[in-house]
C-alpha cells in the first residue's frame, strides 16, 4: 500500500487527465480498426479476415473501459481520500499502461 504523500492531489489530477487522454486515443484507434474491417468487400474477403479485425476492435474496449474506471477512481480519490484508493489508482494506471501497450503492439504486428 502506498501512503498518500503531500503531493498526492497532483498525482491524482495527472492520472485523471492521462486516463481520459488514453481512453480517447483508444476509442479512436478501435474505431479505426472497425472502419478498416468495414472497408473489406464481403464478397471478395474471407470472413475470418473481417472477423479478425472486428475482434481486434472489440479487444480495444478492454483498455478503454479500464481507462474510464481509472479516471473515475482518480476522481473518487479527489472527493474521498483513502490510502487504499490511492494505491488502487496507482496500480490501475500501471495496468492501463501495460494493456494499452500490449494492444498497440498486437495491432501493429498483426493487423497493420
From TrEMBL:
Superkingdom of the organism of origin = Bacteria
The keyword Transmembrane helix appears for this protein:
yes
Transmembrane segment boundaries: 12-35, 56-78, 84-109
Keywords recorded for this protein, A-Z: Membrane, Transmembrane, Transmembrane helix
- Put simply, this protein is called Uncharacterized protein
Q: Which organism is it from?
A: Edaphobacter dinghuensis
Amino acid at each position: 500500500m502506498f501512503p498518500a504523500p503531500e503531493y498526492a492531489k497532483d498525482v491524482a489530477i495527472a492520472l485523471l487527465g492521462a486516463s481520459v487522454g488514453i481512453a480517447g486515443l483508444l476509442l479512436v484507434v478501435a474505431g479505426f480498426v472497425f472502419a478498416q474491417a468495414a472497408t473489406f468487400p464481403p464478397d471478395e474477403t474471407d470472413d475470418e479476415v473481417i472477423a479478425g479485425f472486428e475482434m481486434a476492435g472489440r479487444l480495444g474496449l478492454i483498455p478503454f473501459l479500464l481507462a474510464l474506471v481509472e479516471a473515475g477512481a482518480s476522481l473518487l480519490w479527489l472527493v474521498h481520500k483513502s490510502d487504499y484508493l490511492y494505491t488502487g489508482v496507482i496500480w490501475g494506471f500501471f495496468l492501463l499502461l501495460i494493456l494499452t501497450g500490449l494492444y498497440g503492439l498486437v495491432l501493429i504486428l498483426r493487423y497493420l
